[in-house]
Amino acid sequence: MERRMVVAQADCPARRVPDGTPLTIPKDTFVTITQALGGNYTVTYHGQMVRVDGTDAANLGLEPELLSFPPPVDDLIDEAQVWEALRTVYDPEIPVDLVNLGLIYSVAIDQSTKRVDISMTLTAPACGMGPVLVGDVEYRVRRVPNMDLVKVELVFDPPWSRDMMSEEAQLETGMFF
Question: What is the longest distance spanned by two Cα atoms in the chain?
Answer without folding.
Answer: 49
